[in-house]
Specification:
Length: about 90
C-alpha cells in the first residue's frame, strides 16, 4: 500500500530507480520523497528507534527525510530529484 496517489501530471518521462533493491518507476521531475511515498507506506525507519518516517516539513528545513544511497551518500529526499538508476536504502 502506498501513502500517496498520483492524480494528475502523469505524462512525464519515466525514470527507473531502486528502493531497498526493488525496482520502481518514478516520473522525471519527481522528488525522491514523492517517488518513495508513491510506492510505500513510509520513507524510512528512524535511526533513533522512534518508528517510521514520512517526511515532515517537505521543504528541506527539518532534516526528517534524510535517506541513503547504496553508495553511502546521504541526502534529503524532499529536495532531491529522482535520477535514472538511483538506488536507495530506507533501513539503517
Amino acid at each position: 500500500m502506498s501513502l500517496l496517489t498520483r492524480i494528475a501530471d502523469s505524462d512525464r518521462t519515466t525514470v527507473t530507480m531502486f528502493i531497498d533493491g526493488v525496482e520502481i518507476q518514478a516520473l522525471s521531475g519527481d522528488t525522491v520523497l514523492t517517488a518513495i511515498l508513491l510506492h510505500g507506506e513510509r520513507l524510512r525507519e528512524s535511526e533513533f528507534g522512534d518508528g517510521p518516517r514520512a517526511g515532515f516539513c517537505l521543504m528541506g528545513v527539518c532534516q526528517d527525510c534524510w535517506v541513503r544511497s547504496h553508495n553511502g551518500s546521504i541526502f534529503q529526499a524532499c529536495t532531491t530529484p529522482v535520477e535514472e538508476g538511483m538506488s536507495l536504502v530506507t533501513t539503517i
